[in-house]
């Protein structure tokens, strides 16, 4: 049974469910919510790279998400650029700005880095809010076009946009998996575990932290650009600080430093949020204690807690086998 329920089969089943979901559930609202969840999952994977695997908590992630969204919006609405070219440029612009900010931010460490990036994220929000000549300020950008057709394939319906976002999500998960399982990913984990020890064995920690930071901003920019094309309207609130704390909550609940944690955490919290809409603002009174309990008893999230439980169970099984072997040897000797 354990051979049937393995990681690869689980991924295949989840992918089949995601592909068949629009065909099985004829509800546009659920489709809309799930598409948004997929978009935020892409951004959360970026936060997981820098925070979960490299150990640097960046609180400017919502700012980079907003840069990606506004870059695509401005290029398509004001510059009237082709959507796909604008999407590529939005990711490039976000990554370039992220690289410049990372050069300065990564000179700080631990809570100083978190505070610095939080300030950077808020500055990005203020620039979007105040620069009305470029961003339209509180009025926001209206009329952002849907993705341009690719041959006979059009992206004008909610279902087609759902599959487009799903494609990018699967691509992001594949890329993150390859990164984490590579030597570069091992280097990030070494820096997270002990930066001083990583330096003693010859790892260029500053270089790898900067690359990790840039990768995180790339995924944030991609998520923001897809968000802008899906919603078709963006305002300054897309880069406000509460957005990064929502992303951080998704990551902590799912499992920080795990491959499937961002996906599980985002889908779970988004589903709970929609299920508790009738409570309005009071639903946070329920989320707060649940999050505190989860962090206390499962500090590595749902996925991390499951892995720890599985490791303990396997250790007990091995110990039972060892004890049985010892008993059999003792019986033979007698």
UniProtKB/TrEMBL annotation:
Compartmental location: Cell membrane
CDD domains: TM_PBP1_LivM_like
Organism in which the protein naturally occurs: Metabacillus herbersteinensis
Annotated keywords: Cell membrane, Membrane, Transmembrane, Transmembrane helix
Name of the molecule in the record: Branched-chain amino acid ABC transporter permease
Transmembrane parts of this sequence: 7-25, 31-50, 57-77, 83-106, 113-131, 159-176, 210-235, 247-272, 284-303
Signal peptide positions on this chain: none
Membrane topology summary: Multi-pass membrane protein
Principal place of residence: membrane
């Amino acid at each position: 049974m354990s051979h049937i329920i393995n990681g690869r089969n689980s991924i295949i089943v989840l992918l089949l469910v995601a592909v068949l979901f629009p065909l099985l559930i004829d509800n546009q609202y659920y489709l809309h919510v799930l598409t948004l969840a997929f978009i935020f999952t892409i951004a959360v994977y970026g936060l997981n790279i820098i925070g979960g695997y490299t150990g640097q908590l960046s609180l400017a992630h919502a700012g980079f998400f907003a840069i990606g969204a506004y870059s695509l919006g401005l290029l398509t609405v004001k510059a009237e650029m082709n959507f796909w070219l604008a999407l590529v440029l939005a990711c490039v612009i976000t990554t370039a700005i992220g690289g410049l900010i990372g050069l300065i931010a990564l000179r700080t460490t631990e809570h100083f880095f978190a505070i610095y990036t939080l300030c950077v994220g808020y500055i990005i929000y203020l620039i979007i809010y105040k620069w009305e000549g470029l961003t339209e300020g509180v009025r926001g950008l209206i009329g952002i076009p849907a993705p341009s057709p690719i041959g006979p394939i059009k992206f004008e319906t909610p279902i087609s946009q759902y599959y487009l976002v799903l494609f990018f999500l699967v691509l992001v998960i594949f890329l993150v998996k390859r990164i984490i399982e590579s030597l570069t990913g091992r280097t990030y984990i070494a820096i997270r575990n002990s930066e001083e020890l990583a330096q003693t064995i010859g790892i260029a920690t500053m270089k790898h932290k900067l690359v990790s930071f840039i990768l995180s901003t790339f995924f944030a920019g991609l998520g923001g650009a897809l968000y802008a094309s899906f919603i078709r309207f963006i305002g300054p609130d897309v880069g406000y600080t509460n957005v990064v704390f929502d992303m951080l909550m998704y990551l902590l609940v799912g499992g920080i430093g795990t491959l499937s944690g961002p996906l599980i955490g985002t889908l779970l919290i988004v589903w709970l949020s929609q299920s508790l809409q009738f409570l309005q603002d009071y639903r946070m009174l329920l989320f707060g204690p649940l999050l505190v309990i989860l962090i206390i008893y499962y500090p590595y999230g749902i996925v991390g807690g499951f892995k720890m439980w599985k490791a303990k169970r396997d250790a007990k099984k091995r110990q039972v086998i060892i004890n049985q072997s010892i008993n059999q040897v003792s019986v033979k000797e007698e």
